[in-house]
Fold each of these.
Amino acid sequence: MSEPIQNRYDFIILFDVENGNPNGDPDAGNMPRIDPETGLGLVTDVCLKRKIRNYVATVKEGEPGYGIYIQEDVPLNTLDKKALDYIGCTDLKGLKKADPDADRKIMNFMCGNFFDVRTFGAVMTTFVKAALNCGQVRGPVQLGFAQSIDPIVPQEVTITRVAITTEADAEKKGTEMGRKHIVPYGLYRCEGFVSANLARKTTGFSEEDLALLWQAILNMFENDRSAARGMMAVRELIVFKHDSELGNAPAHKLFDAVKVARIDPTAPARSFADYRVEVDESRIPEGVHCTRMA
């Protein structure tokens, strides 16, 4: 693996949805998530990390060092066993006594072989409770919840289908009714952080990993199309690079320099062209560099 990154980064993701459901809430009938006090739409960090993982799994399929730990239909214990096999473990109870550094070796194996562990961290304590496990890793890359720029207006759309569920129902009717939830349009903003300090001390997150992360963020919706999310796209990725490992300015001050507003507040937004994105360079202090990717 390459050397860990040496600079701190803070970043903003701007993405939008058109006539789709960006992140359904299972506690509300899969309606789009919404802040009940402000009406602003929400997308969880877990949802976005899933799409980043899926992209990396697709473009790095089978490539050593880029496995995905949190994946569908694969028990975590199955992947944990790979680390135990790597260090030649046959006696779980006696391993710690024989090798006091066993936990560290196992954790390093997981970080070196799974991109999402190296990036986001993971709780890998499910294998042998209170004995030997793959550790708890705090990842250098963290995301907050995404929040829409303006309040969203979720709509419940009634649909019909000609395929009837049962033979008995087919004798009575020719169609069945259904419903789906959509947001006509919403532009969302998510803020994230990359810690060079944690990369150096814990996971070894490298410059190659960072470049792949930016690539995955910019393309995370391109291979995630579905009937509920047909038109979703990352419109811009704004990255603040610090000249040091611990940073040269507080993240919130950098985020405050980015303003996103509707061009015509009197008309409902229906596309990204209805918004203006501005970065106030005068508010970015010395030692921090801003890059805009789209």
Amino acid sequence: MSVAEWSGSLVEWEWELRSWKARLGPVFRRRQLRETGGAFLDGLLSGIERKTGWMMAEQAGLPGPWRMQALLGKSRWDADALRDEVRAYAVEALGCPDGVLVVDETGFVKKGRHSVGVARQRTGTAGRVENSQVGVFLAYAGRFGQALIDRRLYLPREWAEDGVRRTKTQVPEEVAFAAKPALARAMIGEALDAGVPCAFVLADAVYGSDSGLRRMLEGRGQSYVLEVCGDHSLRFVAAGGLIQADPATIADELGDGAWAAHAVGEGGNGPRLYDWARVALARRREDGRERWLLIRRSRRDPDERSYYLVFCRVGTTLAELAGAAGLRWTIEECFQRAKDDLGLDHCEARSWHGWHRHVSLVMAAAAFLAKLAADLRRAAYGNRNETGLDRSIAA
């Protein structure tokens, strides 16, 4: 294999991008909208620092920002239709039987109060309570990469119940207040209904603590590894009868022989190695599924632990569960690329439709980059196996 092949310099960027724009054409319906949508994607993928209407218009050679602004505002097209295309495209590029769905939220700090959904609320982006919007996102991760495939703007109750602000920001009548886990349930359910191949659903404690999400996934027979807090209330039947405890207490009682070391991907200084243990939470179900409490412990500080509720097929190994839990970072990588490189947090539109349109277009740009990277990795992986340099992985 030549350097050009594994370095990516042979990637047919322009051809791939034209193909992706052509596929998205029906979403925009009219020729001018298709052209503006294509120019918007070009701007997102360009090196300009701020993905604003003025700067992207200048990048496209337009006299002003009006067409870019109209694309997010008064023009007629369906952002959910674009989302559907992005999801299908990303799954075609990344999908595999052992892929995972990851749900998480990210914040968009704002100075004013007029953009839809803005409120004083906690956001992990700032690490504190800030004047911000919060979006709940769903990502798909496979062995060749990851991409965002769905999004919902969280509408705080104060917004959901304020008719004046709803009207000003064009919030649809059918949109009511919904907690973040409810938004996650809807996105995951739609992805599974669309046939997205998924070995596990992953989420942090905000979503893992939601019993409604766990019931929904178990009703579908869908495996999950969902984080919970150390004081999460657990009730289950063991050999000695009904047990009521919490994850931290159970972890405290485990002996040294209960733990095994497993790596969960690469860190800045090599493989990220942790100690892992699991405790059965119930008898095996008749459908061949079982529930576990999974515990991750730092090897440097044994008091630093994370806890996960697990629903999986009988026979799933501890190493498999540890590997799945470690994949939750993939959505953070999606957020970082989308914000740092593609302007996810540069949205100027204040309306409900404007936010979802801007974010969906950024997701389309990110999915394009994810496909190029996946194609390159897949080609390098195939060539490596053909030359016999990776027989252990191929086996």
